[in-house]
Amino acid sequence: MRFEAxxxxxxxxxxxxxxxxxxxxTNKVRKRVIPVRNFSKYSDYSVAAERLKNNPRHRDxxxxxxxxxxxxxxxxxRDHMQGFSLEYSLASFKLDPNxxxxxxxxxxxxxxxxxxxxxxxxxxxxxxxxxxxxxLEVDFTTKEKCSWDEESDDGF
Length: 156
Known about the structure:
This protein is of the alpha+beta class. Helix content is about 35%, strand content about 15%.
């Protein structure tokens, strides 16, 4: 890998991905503006990100950039084309535990599930972790009573 990606960003007008990278042979930091062509507010962000990453002209530069990062940048571009603010786009990447996931469309639900899977993998304890405990028992005591607890059927 001759290029090391340092930072990624978006440019709204004209739509482009901005990449700050370091050329390993000369140790110079450079900026590359990669235009995003044939992308509209109705485009699929994952297909566009994959197409850009596999483009022979940009493949060497984007080798150090993850597919999910490129997808996020395309989501920000698509949201801007739809008239949403940058703050709205960035807030959509954060997980809200009180958000009703039943009200999301399929694309957003898949994105949220991917974020939850990534968070789970980061917090997961494996056998070789130093804080791993084999048979951990946790007592979840609730201090509030629920009405359905008191009205139980004796038949079950």
